[in-house]
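Re-running Inosine-5'-monophosphate dehydrogenase related protein to confirm reproducibility after the cluster update. Everything else is unchanged from the original entry.
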Amino acid sequence: MEKIRDIMTTDVETCSLLDNIYEVAVKMKDLNVGAIPVVDNGKLVGMITDRDIVLRCIAEKNPPSSKVEEVMSRQLVTVTPESSTREAAQLMAKNQIRRLPVVEGDKLAGIVSLGDFAVRQLTDDQAKEALSEISEQHGQQHH
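Result of re-run:
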């Protein structure tokens, strides 16, 4: 069975606790991503998503100069490089997330996204099913 280390991206754009929300929003736009890991001294401490920015910054009328630390999600769902691709796909479907940080201990080692699975020839039916579920549910949210 394929391991996450075989498909993960190791060159990960991150942000810090003190970055401001405007900078992170620009980074998301430039990278065309909806989630960025938050790292403090190499340690993964959170994730910030476009949804976090909308709900905890804009909807709360906080300024774009707000710090990442005030807006980020601290509840982390992670995998290790040794996790199976099947396990990761199931976690992503269960938690409705498209980008999953890969950690070794508490250090960020990489990230795996739905796209990383899409470009692989997945032979595991459960992984395919999990990915189609998250894609379908994501699509339904925009109606």
